[in-house]
Amino acid sequence: MGSLTDKYCIVGVGETPHMRPSNRTTLSMACEAVSKAVADAGLKLSDIDGMTSYQIGDSTTSPHVATALGMRLNYAVDILGGGSSGEALVAHAIGLIEAGYCKTMVIFRAMNGRSGRRMGGQTPGGPIPVAVAEGDGQFNMGWGWTTPAQRFGMSAMRYLRDTGCTTRAFAEIAVAHRYHASLNPKAIHRSPITIEDHQRSRWIVKPFRLLDCCQETDVSVAIVVTSRERAFDLRHPPVFIMGGYARTLTDSPQWNYSRDEIHYVAGNYGWKRAFGMAGISHKDVDFISCYDAFTFTTLIQLEANGFCGKGEAGEFVKGGRLRIDRELPSNLSGGHLSEGYTHGVQMVIENVRQLRHRADDACPGWAEGRHTYDRKAGCRQLRKADICCGMGWGWENMASCLILRGIAA
Amino acid sequence: MPAPIDYSKLRIVPDFDTAEWWAAAKEHKYLVRQCSDCGHKWFPPIFPACARCGSLKPGWFETAGKGVIHSYVVVVQPIVGAFVGTAPYVVAIIELDDCREAGGSVTRVAGVMLNDEPEVAIGLPCEVVYEETADPRIVMPRWRVSGSAANAWRFAE
Q1: Which H/E stretch holds residue B110?
Q2: What part of B 58-97 touches A (C-beta under 8 Å)?
Q3: pTM
Q4: CATH second-level architecture of A145-215+240-409?
């Protein structure tokens, strides 16, 4: 980007409630999320001329949504992908709008992540009755080693060994993000937890306990991207895209385990480009979001994106540093760990709301940007929310990032 | 030792790139890919080209099936039905002793340990063991700890 910094904006966001189960099709949820995001921007569906989405063979497509909602599009593409794809599709939108293929684009993800296809192949009712191990699965399914928890656990275990960090550092992430969820009426889990609650929760796959793992929810999310010229006419203060990187890969991305360091993840290859484009340093960042599929993935993204030194994240997060009103607030909606699971887009949505100063919390005047900042009364709006760094994660191998700023920055 | 894996609930489907690997496992041989042009080794065999030189002529290298545990996880809540009665079980990443290359490249494989969690640690030597399955075409390589190491590291929480 560089020369495109601040030329493109996120102007609309929308989502369906996190449900378990939704009792709806992904198409039905996608129509609602897209409609809400477009309305949030103050646009009509006919103002949208491009649509993209991502999925893993578990969702509806842009042509289906366009048919259902009566939209005639100049561009419609649905890509294969999970985490880190939403931020990457923002980069696609910038390129398409810049090149004149489209004027205003909507990006969605719709998934029945609990009642439909679950990560790792588990059925809605539980373990896979008869597992068919083909393709990549020949070398993981046959070893009972399929879920993201089981796969990321390998790099987490090696990280603990290499750094001397303990799982109390994992707990810091769970506690901070849960506290933010307690301030979010939309979150699935809102009861605050302690480090000890984390340490006492049951094992899922060592080194991960239950409270290290994200939720599984049925949900759809959507965001609208357009140029700054159009953005100023719309309903909300625009949120400017300062920089980013899009689905950057490590070497050997589909077999992480022969790499020099299995916990040297993809963000390491991207962050200098993103901060260079944005023209900022880490100390300009007021808050962050991380792809918290697991507590550990947050920890390692802090290192990978240069917020702390290599091997130092455990020390960095100690004592509640990632909580609201502290040094580096993270995942202010509660994230995947506590709000629900959207393959990353909910973080972009929350970041946009924070940067607009319109977090949808318990404050009666939130929609007009009036907040009390009283956490005990359920306010989750940051006092100063000018610049945000949002970090996306696919696996160890794949990462994206979006650095955003509000109108005040 | 963990309880047996119920292989009747698992169907392995070899493909054009992996059929020879599974055929070798049936003969109790552990193969990795080796480039016919530059000699680079890699795993798993689903990748049909050499990531070092770009050659499209992958050959095979028969390893001695010995290595060192590089990392591991302990699956307490199983997801694959064949492993429901096996949990808790250890899946390990094993760095093969005879696949270290001059340029620093290593080849690491994965598999299910025959040992219970307390016997497993990063840094321990291990060796392959072959296990019959319910499918006469498929023999599954597993791994067992074969010695001790001064620098072994175990997850103790």
Answers
A1: strand B108-112
A2: 70-84, 86, 89, 91, 93
A3: 0.97
A4: 3-Layer(aba) Sandwich (3.40)
